Amino acid sequence: MSGKDRIEIFPSRMAQTIMKARLKGAQTGRNLLKKKSDALTLRFRQILKKIIETKMLMGEVMREAAFSLAEAKFTAGDFSTTVIQNVNRAQVKIRAKKDNVAGVTLPVFEHYHEGTDSYELTGLARGGEQLAKLKRNYAKAVELLVELASLQSSFPGLNVPLLISSQSWMRESEKSSIG
Length: 179
Known about the structure:
Helix Hairpins, V_ATPase_D, V-type proton ATPase subunit D, proton-transporting ATPase activity, rotational mechanism, ion transport
């Protein structure tokens, strides 16, 4: 132990009381850092697990959506010009919110529907069932994409504070074990 780590005090009751108060404050700070680190680690692992599950599900949903697009084009013919001409504004929109985890704000996205379906009558002559299935599949794909975007955007925002609080906690535990 080097000489600069030692605190020079005069041995008295007052100095003892002050040192006890400083020790208590250091222990409380260490415990708070440990709790914060544990909460961030728990949330980090939850997000990581959800990202993996969502990506696995995303491949399956996109494959199903692409297949339903092929079915709809085969049944109803080329309907892309009808869809492009009828677009006025988006039905599905994204709202950004913030979530607080142990003092760290994370972005959270959620989707919502606005307005009515302007393509209700599309495919009425032929292929209406396939078009309805196509809409459902792509709506599910968009929903999963929004969830995945939310998870992946909060991942780096959680990683850096987790590393900082873990390092601070480790430094504090090393100091308390030395002295």
